[in-house]
């Protein structure tokens, strides 16, 4: 176990103490305690920057389920470090912000921060794990923590709807990603991503290449809200604003981007990969920016904007992956700038979108609304917020002197390079990119001007707005200052973080020993990119001021293609379908269920036994039958007969218990004391349990049922009895597999136990016992929940 | 429904200690003789159930003021944590170990980590089974 494993798990470990701290210090905002965690982690990851820059990345392995090849192995390279820095850096700022956003009097802070810490650990795990199964586990934990955080205000219907939607879509994607991972591991016989990258040639020529690629992409696209899976992200905005800023714009939604970047060395260079990623990205970019313009809720607007920006990064990764395409050596360096642009924009997006989200949260708190139709003229009332919004908004629009300008220019460069060197349909890419940028410019202007300029409408606001407390402004100010700093000094970033990250996405592009040399400059002369930006500004301004005239086109969008409606219809359709099926066979009568069960037993076991011809009887090796064994059998048969003929339920149960006790006597005779003991005790407990249940049942009456039912029951009873008797008699005649008992014969040396049965239980097969215990506990809690927490008893309580 | 059965009550008062002692014995004997956490737990459950059946629920609650759900969860937690504990020694999950220690009074005694695991099983069994039985029996 190395430090890095520990640091990944620190947030989860710390979350154990959060409820305690919340209880002990009710007067101190719990966020202050939590804040220390991401700051420490951020400093730790910053310290790793020099070593990642200069050395080969190292694989730190912590054995977990080594026998299956599943180990918690951590691979800290440029890409993982870049993401880790974003996760912990933005995380620190968001937690600081949340201290002011979340009221300590009204909110269940302990839940909030536990979920948040759960998320932080799992997100770090996603970007640092080298083992795909571990990555998958962390990936799903991010989905679950996102679900919990979206549903944080679970009293609201919208929150529950949004949480469920995000959960269904992202977990669906996660499962298909798992399937893709499994296909890859079938091809390569390993779970390690780095080992898979080493075997990329085999993967490339394997017939499972395409299915694995598509399945993994499905995971990436659902997580990163790519078209047509983007529908969950706007609904996820029901979460508290710090969560929207953190999970749903800066980190979790970028897990898909991470996945695409991480698997580029394996799949990149395949034309299918390039087309799938870049076209999906561009469609998302355009559709998101187009829909963002029509939104009236600031958070929904930012959500669509995030969708669109994620599409932009995705399309860059798609185009850049062509650098690995065989035969494009001369263009590959040119195309690799697209990867650089993607990484750079990833950071920039986290800074400007984070600050914008925080400002929207502030506006929401201060005015009581996020509706741009009610806002306006806040410029003079909230000057600091206004300044931050201008910085963030113009950066998003792609204007200098902000970092968004640099990455937007690089985006245009990447698309132009693609059009030039790949040709065919990619010649359309710059046009789509430009058009989407125009809409991006328009909605950036909407955020800035509709909120802060125009006429102030105090009568429409619930509260009298003012600047929030300083502490709440500090995080967006820090982010906004990064927006400016990165414009003037982009290369501090490129030497330290971007170059190693590029190295890990495109590991085979350069000869060994070489490094990427990245130098970002703001002004390249009057080239195509700059002209495109000027065009965006001109055209965007016109569109913004004529918004009223052309916004009618949104009403003419085809109704039937609304993906949200499709989702809702699909969901309710599935609900109806499954409830129909359930109504069909769930009659509510235990005897019906027993009929199903036993029929299946007869059909499955009986037919397979006949098919494999297992029935064979050899009695020659059996020991002699003693007189007391015959006595036991006679007693058992009598007790069983008594069960059938008894008129009292309690007596029947006791008779069943007698059968069990006789059985345990058999265990004693056959020298299995552990089994005998267990059988005795279990029989005692179950008889008690039965007796308790039977108190509530009506008196046993002579049953009057139709002949047909009786005959069926008789047939089933005879069938089950017959099959088990035959199997019991045939067991001796078969030895399908070699006995495993010799494995346990060394119990005393291996486990220090003279009782082999118990050595197996707690030592050799400890896993089984552990899960059995957990299953038992779940069953216990299940009974408790069913009986004690029924809706009726809840009503009675109220 | 409160009913008194003097013979049952008197007998229970004596029997219960025998059963409890036996269950403790079974629990510790498990390593070398028949017994162990599961059986020990079930025998102890049987003792508690006997107590509940002889005396009424209110009295039993007063005498045994524990929440069996918590006991069960605590037991499962112990079982899982002993497994996680093996990570500290860089061995696979749930690896057990044992050693021989010279203790005063007992002489040379074997100490095994599987005992800790068995404590978890023991508690989880008691907690879960008692939860089931009490939930059903109190459901009037």
From TrEMBL, chain A:
The keyword Cell membrane applies. Its main location: membrane. Keywords: Antiport, Cell membrane, Hydrogen ion transport, Ion transport, Membrane, Sodium, Sodium transport, Transmembrane, Transmembrane helix, Transport. It is a multi-pass membrane protein. InterPro entries: CPA3_Na-H_Antiporter_A, MrpA/MnhA1/PhaAB, MrpA_C/MbhD, MrpA_C/MbhE, ND/Mrp_TM, Proton_antipo_N. It holds the Pfam family MbhD. Residues 65-112 form the NADH-Ubiquinone oxidoreductase (complex I) chain 5 N-terminal domain. It is found in: Cell membrane; Membrane. Residues 634-699 form the MrpA C-terminal/MbhD domain. Residues 129-420 form the NADH:quinone oxidoreductase/Mrp antiporter transmembrane domain. Residues 711-792 form the MrpA C-terminal/MbhE domain. The chain crosses the membrane at residues 6-25, 32-52, 72-100, 112-128, 134-154, 166-188, 203-222, 243-261, 273-293, 300-325, 331-363, 375-399, 431-449, 470-489, 530-547, 593-615, 627-645, 652-670, 676-697, 709-731, 770-789. PANTHER family: NA(+)/H(+) ANTIPORTER SUBUNIT, NA(+)_H(+) ANTIPORTER SUBUNIT A. Belongs to the CPA3 antiporters (TC 2.A.63) subunit A family. This is Na+/H+ antiporter subunit A.
UniProtKB/TrEMBL annotation, chain B:
InterPro entries: CPA3_antiporter_subunitB, MnhB. It holds the Pfam family MnhB. It is found in: Cell membrane. The chain crosses the membrane at residues 12-31, 37-59, 71-95, 115-136. Coiled coil: none annotated. Belongs to the CPA3 antiporters (TC 2.A.63) subunit B family. This is Na(+)/H(+) antiporter subunit B. It comes from Aliibacillus thermotolerans.
């Amino acid at each position: 176990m190395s430090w890095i494993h520990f640091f990944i798990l620190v947030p989860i470990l710390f979350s154990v103490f959060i409820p305690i701290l919340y209880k002990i210090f009710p007067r101190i905002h719990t966020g202050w305690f939590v804040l220390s965690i991401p700051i420490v982690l951020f400093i730790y990851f910053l310290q790793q920057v020099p070593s990642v820059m200069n050395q080969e990345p190292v694989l730190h392995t912590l054995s977990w389920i080594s026998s299956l090849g599943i180990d918690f192995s951590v691979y800290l390279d440029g890409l993982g470090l870049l993401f880790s820095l974003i996760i912990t850096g933005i995380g620190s700022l968001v937690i600081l912000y949340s201290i002011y956003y979340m009221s300590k009097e009204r909110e269940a802070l302990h839940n909030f921060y536990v979920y948040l810490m759960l998320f932080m650990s799992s997100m770090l795990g996603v970007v640092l794990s080298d083992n795909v199964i571990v990555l998958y586990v962390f990936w799903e934990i991010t989905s679950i923590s996102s679900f919990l955080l979206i549903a944080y205000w679970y009293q609201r219907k919208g929150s529950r709807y949004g949480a469920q939607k995000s959960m269904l879509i992202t977990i669906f994607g996660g499962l298909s990603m798992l399937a893709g991972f499994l296909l890859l591991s079938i091809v390569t016989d390993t779970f390690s991503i780095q080992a898979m990258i080493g075997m990329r040639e085999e993967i490339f020529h394997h017939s499972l290449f395409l299915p694995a690629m598509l399945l993994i992409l499905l995971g990436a696209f659902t997580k990163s809200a790519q078209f047509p899976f983007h529908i969950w992200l706007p609904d996820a905005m029901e979460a508290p604003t710090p969560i929207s800023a953190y999970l749903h714009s800066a980190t979790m939604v970028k897990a898909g981007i991470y996945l695409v970047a991480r698997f580029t060395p394996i799949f990149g260079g395949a034309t299918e990969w390039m087309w799938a990623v870049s076209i999906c990205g561009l469609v998302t970019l355009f559709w998101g920016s187009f829909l963002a313009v029509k939104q009236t809720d600031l958070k929904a607007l930012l959500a669509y904007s995030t969708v669109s920006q994620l599409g932009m990064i995705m399309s860059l990764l798609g185009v850049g992956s062509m650098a690995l395409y065989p035969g494009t050596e001369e263009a590959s360096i040119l195309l690799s700038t697209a990867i650089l642009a993607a990484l750079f924009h990833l950071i920039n997006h986290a800074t400007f979108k984070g600050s914008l989200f925080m400002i929207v949260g502030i506006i929401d708190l201060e005015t009581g609304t996020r509706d741009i139709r009610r806002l306006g003229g806040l410029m003079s009332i909230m000057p600091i917020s206004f300044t931050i919004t201008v910085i963030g908004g113009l950066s998003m629009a792609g204007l200098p002197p902000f970092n968004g300008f640099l990455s937007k220019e690089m985006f245009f460069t990447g698309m132009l390079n693609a059009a030039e060197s790949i040709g065919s349909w990619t010649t359309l890419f710059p046009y789509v990119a430009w058009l989407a940028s125009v809409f991006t410019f328009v909605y950036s202007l909407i955020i800035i001007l509709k909120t802060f300029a125009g006429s102030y409408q105090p009568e429409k606001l619930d509260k009298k707005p003012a600047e929030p407390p300083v502490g709440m402004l500090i995080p967006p100010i820090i982010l906004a200052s990064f927006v400016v700093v990165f414009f003037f000094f982009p290369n501090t970033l490129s030497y330290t973080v971007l170059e190693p990250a590029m190295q890990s996405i495109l590991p085979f592009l350069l000869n060994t020993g070489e490094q990427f040399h990245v130098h970002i400059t703001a002004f390249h002369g009057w080239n195509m990119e700059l002209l495109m930006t000027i065009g965006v500004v001109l055209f965007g301004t016109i569109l913004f001021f004529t918004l009223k005239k052309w916004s009618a086109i949104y009403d003419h969008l085809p109704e039937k293609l609304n993906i949200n409606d499709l989702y809702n219809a699909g969901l309710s359709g599935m609900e109806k379908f499954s409830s129909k099926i359930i109504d069909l066979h769930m009659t509510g009568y235990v005897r019906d269920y027993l009929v199903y069960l036993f029929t299946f037993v007869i059909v499955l076991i009986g037919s397979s036994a006949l098919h494999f011809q297992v029935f064979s009887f050899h009695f020659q090796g059996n020991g002699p039958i003693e007189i007391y064994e015959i006595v036991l059998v006679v007693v058992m048969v009598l007790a069983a007969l008594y069960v059938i003929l008894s008129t009292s339920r309690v007596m029947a149960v006791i008779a069943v218990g007698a059968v069990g006790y006789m059985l345990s006597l058999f265990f004693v005779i056959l020298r299995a004391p552990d089994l005998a003991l267990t059988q005795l005790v279990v029989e005692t407990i179950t008889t008690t349990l039965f007796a308790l249940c039977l108190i509530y049942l009506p008196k046993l009456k002579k049953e009057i049922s139709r002949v047909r039912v009786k005959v069926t029951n008789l047939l089933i009873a005879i069938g089950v009895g017959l099959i088990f008797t035959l199997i019991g008699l045939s067991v001796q005649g078969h030895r399908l597999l070699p006995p495993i008992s010799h494995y346990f014969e060394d119990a005393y040396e291996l486990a220090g136990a003279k009782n082999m049965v118990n050595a197996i239980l707690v030592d050799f097969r400890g896993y089984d016992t552990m899960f059995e215990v957990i299953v038992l506990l779940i069953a216990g809690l299940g009974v408790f929940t069913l009986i004690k927490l029924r809706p009726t008893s809840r009503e009675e309580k109220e | 429904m409160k009913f008194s059965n003097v013979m049952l009550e008197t007998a229970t008062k004596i029997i219960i200690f025998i059963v409890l002692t036996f269950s403790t014995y079974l629990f510790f004997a498990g390593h070398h003789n028949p017994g162990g956490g599961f059986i020990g737990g079930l025998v102890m459950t049987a003792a508690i159930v006997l107590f509940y059946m002889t005396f009424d629920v209110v009295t039993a609650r007063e005498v045994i003021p524990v929440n069996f759900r918590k006991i069960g969860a605590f037991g499962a937690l112990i079982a899982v944590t002993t497994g996680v504990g093996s990570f500290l020694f860089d061995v696979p999950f749930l690896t057990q170990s044992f050693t021989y220690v010279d203790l005063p009074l007992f002489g040379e005694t074997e100490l095994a980590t599987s005992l800790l695991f068995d404590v978890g099983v023991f508690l989880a069994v008691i907690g879960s089974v008692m939860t089931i039985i009490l939930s059903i029996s109190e459901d009037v």
